């Protein structure tokens, strides 16, 4: 398991049936695991042939996930100058749904504030009209 691969070699393996991932400068052949990944195949394909260290760590994978990873190990990355930086995880389904709901919450908050301001304005206007009469 002492095979050394350059980033260029790894990046040639980004297809679902031929999928290499770099995590902590180790190269993992994830082809056999794509269909079984509890986080879905899309996130793996997104970082296929790239440095997935951040994407993998951001999720806070369990020890079990790390054990699976060891079984997929095929070599180490021969890092060269100018190689791309770790790819940050794409927004996952659960993360995007929370951000949508928080976006809606903010929108609602704005509507309530604006509504309150409009009501206050109308109240002041009526008051000033009453004063004139
Ligand atoms: C070959 C590398 C990977 C392996 C072996 C792996 C394995 C696993 C395993 C076993 C789980 C179940 C929960 C756990 O045990 O932590 C999981 C969940 C998850 N993984 Fe991965 N994973 C890998 C790469 C990635 C990458 C690169 C991402 C990118 C974002 C990712 C995103 C997720 C997400 C979002 C979940 C949570 C799914 C849920 O709880 O609904 N994984 N992964």
Automatic annotation (TrEMBL):
It is a single-pass membrane protein. The chain crosses the membrane at residues 106-126. InterPro entries: Cyt_B5-like_heme/steroid-bd, Cyt_B5-like_heme/steroid_sf, Cyt_B5_heme-BS, Cytochrome_b5. PANTHER family: CYTOCHROME B5. Residues 92-101 have a biased composition (Low complexity). Keywords: Electron transport, Endoplasmic reticulum, Heme, Iron, Membrane, Metal-binding, Microsome, Transmembrane, Transmembrane helix, Transport. It holds the Pfam family Cyt-b5. Residues 2-78 form the Cytochrome b5 heme-binding domain. This is Cytochrome b5. SUPFAM superfamilies: Cytochrome b5-like heme/steroid binding domain. Its main location: endoplasmic reticulum. GO terms for cellular component: endoplasmic reticulum membrane. One of its GO terms (molecular function) is metal ion binding. The keyword DNA repair does not apply. Belongs to the cytochrome b5 family. It comes from Hyphodiscus hymeniophilus. One of its GO terms (biological process) is sterol biosynthetic process. It is found in: Endoplasmic reticulum membrane; Microsome membrane. The keyword Protein biosynthesis does not apply. Residues 81-101 are annotated as: Disordered.
């Amino acid at each position: 398991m002492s095979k050394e691969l350059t980033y260029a070699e790894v990046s040639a393996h980004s297809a679902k049936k031929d999928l290499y991932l770099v995590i902590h400068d180790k190269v993992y052949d994830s082809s056999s695991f794509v269909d079984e990944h509890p986080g879905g195949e899309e996130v793996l394909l997104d970082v296929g042939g790239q440095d997935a260290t951040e994407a993998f760590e951001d999720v806070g994978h369990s020890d079990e996930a790390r054990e699976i990873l060891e079984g997929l190990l095929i070599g180490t990355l021969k890092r060269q100058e100018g190689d791309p930086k770790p790819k940050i995880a794409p927004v996952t389904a659960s993360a995007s749904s929370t951000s949508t709901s928080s976006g809606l919450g903010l929108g609602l908050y704005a509507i309530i504030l604006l509504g309150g301001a409009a009501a206050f304005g109308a109240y002041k206007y009526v008051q000033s009209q009453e004063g004139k009469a």
